[in-house]
Write a structure and sequence with these properties.
This protein is mainly alpha-helical. The protein is built from 6 helices and 2 strands. The chain has a two-stranded antiparallel sheet. The protein is elongated, with a radius of gyration of 25 Å. It comes from Actinomadura logoneensis.
Length: 130
């Protein structure tokens, strides 16, 4: 009997899935829908943000006169664009949280619900060894 099997388990704790369970989950249509939904959000926003960031860098390097234009008082276009980088990052984080809560979490729950029984062959091997 191993030390792991004698330790009391929490009533709500799940045993770790074995490799076959991971492969079965990865091949399931529920997991494919989850991955597709994640990619539908993450890829376009990543491209948009990197484009916005590179625009800021390129304008800072090559359009110095434009970036030096005063907007209000001593605040210039470069400072406004720089601060908007933080604003856009925050807005993307908020949008991702909402999207995750509304779309990804229900899909992830479907993956867990449709997952094969955990423990699989490893649990059976441990029982045979006892």
């Amino acid at each position: 009997m191993s030390a792991e099997s004698t330790a009391p388990q929490e009533p709500h704790a799940r045993p770790e899935p074995d490799e076959a369970a991971y492969l079965a989950i990865g091949a399931s249509p529920e997991f494919a829908r989850l991955r597709a939904a994640f990619r539908r959000f993450v890829f376009p926003l990543t491209v948009a943000f990197l484009t916005w960031y590179l625009l800021y860098v390129v304008l800072s390097a090559y359009a110095r006169d434009f970036m030096a234009e005063k907007v209000v008082g001593e605040i210039n276009v470069a400072l406004v664009f720089g601060l908007l980088q933080f604003v856009s990052t925050f807005l993307i984080a908020v949008a991702y949280e909402r999207y995750s809560r509304r779309t990804l979490e229900p899909l992830a729950a479907g993956v867990v619900t449709g997952a094969p029984a955990t423990g699989g062959a490893r649990a059976a091997d441990e029982e045979d060894a006892e």
